[in-house]
Design brief:
- The protein has 430 residues and is α/β, with parallel strands linked by helices.
- It has helices spanning 9-41, 76-88, 101-111, 139-153, 169-174, 179-189, 203-211, 224-227, 250-261, 292-300, 318-322, 329-332, 335-339, 367-380, 385-392, 406-410, 417-428, and strands at 51-53, 60-62, 64-66, 93-96, 119-124, 126-128, 133-135, 158-163, 193-200, 217-221, 265-269, 305-310.
- The chain folds into two domains: 51-342, NADP-dependent oxidoreductase domain (TIM Barrel, Alpha-Beta Barrel); 350-428, no CATH class.
- The protein is built from 17 helices and twelve strands.
- The strands form three sheets. It has an eight-stranded parallel β-sheet with strand order 3-12-11-10-9-8-5-4, with helices on one face.
- It is globular and about 55 Å long.
- Bound molecules: iron/sulfur cluster (2 copies).
- Residues 361-363, 365, 367, 401-407, 417-418, 421 line the site of one iron/sulfur cluster.
- One iron/sulfur cluster (SF4) is lined by residues 352-358, 367-368, 371, 411, 413, 415, 417.
C-alpha cells in the first residue's frame, strides 16, 4: 500500500507539491553548503607543509607565507609562475601592504583564477600618491587605496583587513572614535574584510591593540635578534624575565603571552631580520650567521605565531624556503648558534631593511633604494659600473635631501636616514 492511498486527490497533489518544494529547498541548501565548502576548502593542504589555525579566524594556513616584497621588481609572467608554484607547494597565505599599482596588478595577475585559494591580509591605510607609497589615516585616501587593492586583485573581499602600521601609542590613541576606525569596522560589517588585523613593529602598541579586543591577527616583526631572549629559555616563563639579554623588551614577552592566551594570531615579518641580515654574520646584530631553518624554527616555536612571511621574487627560490618543512631537528636547532660566544646582543638599530615605511620623502627620494645601493657599495668596497648606473637611473638622488627628518620619525628601525643620505651623496658623488 502506498502511503498516499488514504489521502484525497487534492490533498495528495498538495502533498506532492510540498514534497517537491521541500526537495528543492534541500537541494538548494545542499548546493549552497557544497559551494561554501568548496570556497573554504578550495585550497588543498599539501602534506609537505605544516598548517596552523590562524587564531580565532579558524582559517587553516601554511606556516610559511608570502610577503609582497619580492614582487617589487618582477613582471606579471614571473608573478604568475611564483604564485602558482607557491600555491601548488602548500603556501596559502600572503601579505599585501604595498600600494604600488604595478605590484598589486602583478599579484592580481599572479593569482589569476586561484584567488580563493590564497588567504590574503591586505592593508588599510596605505595608498599610492602617484609617486610613492604613503601611510595614511585619511579615510578618503584609505578608501581609494583599499578599493584599488580589490580591483587589482579582481576580488570583492580581503580575508584579513590589516590596519596599517601602528608603531606609536599616540597613533593608536589618535584613531579612537575616528572615521578611520569606523571605516575599518564598516568594511567588516559589509563583508569586504572578513577579519580585522593590525601591523606593528612596536610591542607596547601591539599589546595595547591586542587588549582592545578589536583584532584577530597581528603582523609583527619577530626574530631572534629583535627578541634577545637567552637561548633555550622559555619566554613565557616569568623567571625568564630575569635572564633576558640586555636590551630586550619584556613587553614583547607579554605580547606573545597575551596573544597565545587570547587566540590572537601573529603573522611574522622580518623573519630574517629584514632582508637576509640574520643569515650573514657580518650584517647580523647577533654577530653569528643563522640559517633560514633556524630563523623559521625560532619564530614558529611561539604558539601564537601562525605564519612566517618571507619575500620571494622567483618560483625557483620557493623550494629553498620550503626546505624548512623537511629539515631535521638538528637543522632547525637555533640554540647552539645563539649560544656561541660570538653571539652578542645589540640594539639592532641603525640598519635599513628597505621596507619603505619612511616614505614619502618631500624631495622625492626613494630612500629604501638609495640605502640599498649604498649598502651594496659599502659591502663591495667600491661603486661598480652597475651600481653607478642603477643610482643614476633614480629619479631623485641623495644630494636632493633637504634634511627635514620626516623619514626618521616614520622609520621603525631608527635608521639615521639624514646621515645615510649625506653618506650616499658622498659615495656616489651626488
Ligand atoms: S630607512 Fe627605515 S623605514 Fe626607510 S626603508 Fe630603511 S628601514 Fe625602512
Ligand atoms: S630627511 Fe631627506 S630623505 Fe628624509 S624625508 Fe627629508 S628630504 Fe627625504
Amino acid at each position: 500500500m502506498k502511503f498516499t492511498d488514504n489521502i484525497p486527490p487534492i490533498a495528495g497533489k498538495r502533498h506532492t507539491l510540498l514534497l517537491s518544494c521541500l526537495a528543492f529547498v534541500c537541494a538548494a541548501l545542499l548546493l549552497s553548503a557544497c559551494d561554501g565548502k568548496k570556497k573554504a576548502s578550495s585550497f588543498q593542504e599539501n602534506p609537505d607543509m605544516e598548517y596552523r589555525t590562524l587564531g580565532s579566524t579558524g582559517l587553516r594556513v601554511g606556516v610559511i607565507g608570502l610577503g609582497c616584497g619580492g614582487f617589487d621588481d618582477i613582471d606579471s609572467a614571473t608573478s604568475r609562475e611564483l604564485v602558482t608554484y607557491a600555491l601548488d607547494h602548500g603556501m596559502n597565505y600572503m601579505d599585501i601592504y604595498d600600494a604600488n599599482p604595478k605590484v598589486r596588478s602583478n599579484i592580481g595577475y599572479g593569482l589569476g583564477d586561484r584567488r580563493e585559494e590564497m588567504i590574503i591580509q591586505g592593508h588599510i591605510g596605505c595608498w599610492w600618491n602617484g609617486k610613492s607609497y604613503e601611510r595614511t589615516r585619511d579615510v578618503e585616501k584609505c578608501k581609494k587605496g583599499f578599493e584599488d587593492l580589490l580591483t587589482r586583485l579582481h576580488t570583492d573581499y580581503i580575508d584579513i583587513g590589516m590596519m596599517h602600521i601602528f608603531d606609536k601609542v599616540e597613533d593608536w590613541q589618535a584613531v579612537q572614535g575616528s572615521d578611520y576606525l569606523q571605516y575599518v569596522k564598516d568594511l567588516k560589517a559589509q563583508g569586504k574584510i572578513k577579519h580585522i588585523g593590525v601591523s606593528s613593529h612596536n610591542a607596547e602598541v601591539a599589546l595595547a591593540i591586542a587588549k582592545s579586543g578589536l583584532v584577530e591577527v597581528i603582523m609583527f616583526s619577530l626574530n631572534p635578534a629583535f627578541d634577545r631572549v637567552v637561548s633555550g629559555k622559555n619566554p613565557w616563563d616569568p623567571a625568564s624575565f630575569e635572564e633576558m639579554l640586555p636590551g630586550i623588551d619584556p613587553v614583547r614577552v607579554e605580547l606573545y603571552d597575551y596573544c597565545t592566551r587570547h587566540n590572537i594570531a601573529i603573522t611574522v615579518m622580518k623573519t630574517f631580520g629584514g632582508g637576509d641580515r640574520l643569515l650573514d654574520a657580518e650584517k647580523s646584530p647577533l654577530k653569528t650567521a643563522l640559517t633560514r631553518e633556524q630563523c623559521f624554527a625560532y619564530v614558529l616555536a611561539k604558539p601564537c605565531v601562525t605564519v612566517a612571511l618571507c619575500s620571494i621574487d622567483n618560483a625557483s627560490k620557493v623550494d629553498e624556503y620550503l626546505h624548512y618543512n623537511k629539515a631535521t631537528d638538528e637543522e632547525k636547532d637555533y640554540n647552539a648558534a645563539l649560544s656561541k660566544p660570538t653571539a652578542q646582543a645589540s640594539t639592532g638599530d641603525g640598519g635599513c631593511t628597505y621596507c619603505s615605511h619612511c616614505a614619502p620623502c618631500p624631495a622625492g627620494i626613494d630612500i629604501a633604494k638609495v640605502n640599498k645601493l649604498l649598502d651594496k657599495a659599502n659591502l663591495a668596497g667600491e661603486v661598480s659600473a652597475e651600481l653607478a648606473t642603477e643610482y643614476k637611473a633614480l629619479a631623485h638622488h641623495a644630494s636632493d635631501c633637504i634634511q627635514c627628518g620626516a623619514c626618521e620619525d616614520r622609520c621603525p628601525f631608527n635608521v639615521p636616514v639624514r646621515e645615510k643620505m649625506k653618506e650616499a651623496a658622498k659615495v656616489f658623488g651626488y
